[in-house]
Amino acid sequence: MSNCNRTYAINQIAVSPVLPPCEPRPANIDDYGIDVFNEDSIRKYLSKGIAEKLLATIEKGVPIDPAIAGDVAHAMKEWAIDRGATHYTHWFQPLTGGTAEKHDSFVSPVPHGQAVFAFSGKNLVVGEPDASSFPSGGIRSTFEARGYTAWDPSSPAFIKRHANGATLCIPTAFCSYTGDVLDKKTPLLRSIQALKRSVNRLMKCFGVPEDTPEVSLGPEQEYFLIDKKFYLNRPDLLQTGRTLFGAPPPKHQQLEDHYFGAIKPRIIQFMTEVEQELWKLGIPAKTRHNEVAPAQFELAPVFEDLNVAVDHNMLVMETLRQVADRHGLVCLLHEKPFAGINGSGKHNNWSIGYGKRNLLDPGNDPEQNMIFLTVLSAILRGVDLHADLLRSTTCSINNDHRLGANEAPPAIVSIFLGEQLEDIIDQIAKGAVSTSKKAGTMRIGVDILPTLPRDATDRNRTSPFAFTGNKFEFRAPGSSRSCAGPNIFLNTIVAESLDFISERLEKASAKDFNEALLKIIRDIVAKHRRIVFNGNGYSAEWEAEAARRGLPNLKTTPEALKPLLETVNQKLMEKYGVFSKVEMDSRYEVFLEEYHRKLRIEGEIALEIATSMILPIAATYYGRLSADLASAAQGKLKAGTAGLRRLADQVGAGIDRLDAASDALRKAIAAHNPKKTLAAMTGLRDVVDALELLVDDACWPLPKYREMLFIY
Ligand code: ADP
Ligand code: MG
Question: 588 CA distance to ligand 1 centroid (A)?
Answer without folding.
Answer: 31
